[in-house]
Amino acid sequence: MLGIFVGISDGFLLLKYSPWGAGYGCVVTALYYLLFPAAITGLAFFFILSPLIFTRMRQSIAYKQACADDWVTVLLTGHQYNALDMPNSADFALSTAPPGVLFTFRSQNPDTDVFGLVSASVDLGIPTPMIRPELRNITYDFNARTFSGFCLYDDSTLPCATGTYDDRSFLTFDVSVNGTRTLSRSLYKEWSKDNVVSIILYRVDVGSGALTERILQTSAGNCPNLKVCLPRDVARLDGVIAAETLVPLGWMLHQQSIWTEDCTRPSTG
Fold first, then answer.
1. CA-CA distance, 244 to 169, in Å (whole number)?
2. Which ranges does the record mark as transmembrane (predicted)?
């Protein structure tokens, strides 16, 4: 700041006392007293705001690059505070493929406990197995912390997936699909940061209780959106995104809708 002050002052003095500027001494002096405070004020504002500016830039870069090395990116979008009739959505897309949504799950007020498959598009012209969800919808009881779901391409009137979850300490999910049970648990007890869902979810060995493969991990948030990364370790050869992944994502979409209503509401302070 001192160097800037000296530089500007020297520039005005040279102009004032040079042969070219001798006849303009009064004008130069007036400009000096007008422009110098403005320049100093502008620089002061820049230095005050620069941490916020560079933080936003870093957040923007992190958001764009999130999930770049993973298998699938899930974009959670919650409805805004003044559009509660609009659906919350979870768009699934391959992380390394050309832009295009594979399929979308949505939930909507007043049925926020229903996480259903709305649309599917799997033809991206890529030589990989068709990516598809194991479940076509999931219904949650947020009071009892239970859920049930119906399998894709299954016309049965009975759910193929049932289970429980617990979000009061470590976030845990106990999912059974046609008799096959899987457990998953968050790495940390705190599953939110600044009211934003922040989770690393691991598969749990039913016998030993040890954490094994990482199932999903939240990445950068950018209200009203939140990216969730599905690692390549959980990619199945048949291209199916398993119920043990979909069930937590449905719960996360519900939490995202709560956060989005808050982060889109104008500040009253």
1. 19
2. 30-54
